[in-house]
Amino acid sequence: MENFTEFDIYIEPEEEKTFLKQEEEDIPDEGDPLDSLTPLSKEDLISLTRSALLKKKDLSASSSPQELAKIEAKARDVALNIAEWVYLSADAGEWKFVYDMNKLGQDYLNPTLQALRIRLPDVYIQSSNSRNNRWIEISWKTSNEV
Fold this sequence. Notes:
By secondary structure, this protein is of the alpha+beta class. The chain has a domain at 65-139: 2-Layer Sandwich (Ribosomal Protein S8, Chain: A, domain 1). The chain contains 4 helices and 3 strands. Helix 3 packs across helix 4 (109-119). The protein is extended.
């Protein structure tokens, strides 16, 4: 028998668990998640997509004037930032500047383009407005420049 004092701590050894046993215990068996989905025909998917697009259009159309004013104010700030980077790029000897708009919502692209066209009237402005790839490219090189 060992002599313990009040400062000694006794810890009972735990049952050793392997990684696989712990994984099996933590995850309940719910079956295949695809079994819970109801099968949809092509027509069902088409109607579901159309209704989602109508809801999205209604949400964008029902934006309050205050929200639209906030979007336009933010777009003007972004356009000023882009114009500043265009001037810095031209000062560095580059002929174009590309701004990534993926960080901002899709609602900001058109107001930003409008503000840029006012600030930079004589340059070529190109944009992309896809879901995963939204950008604005400003180019000021003429065809006969080197």
